[in-house]
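Question (not urgent): is this output format expected?
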Amino acid sequence: MSRADIVFVGAGNLATNLAKALYRNGFHILQVYSRTELSARTLAKAVQ
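Got this back:
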């Protein structure tokens, strides 16, 4: 079974922990959107 690509809207504590857990379990995080570019980039780097 293939896993879906995931897009996160928001890069706060909940999104960060959820994205990292999904990434560790083989999910592909396609994009991260946030109000601030720095937050989005920080989370994106953690899950690439």
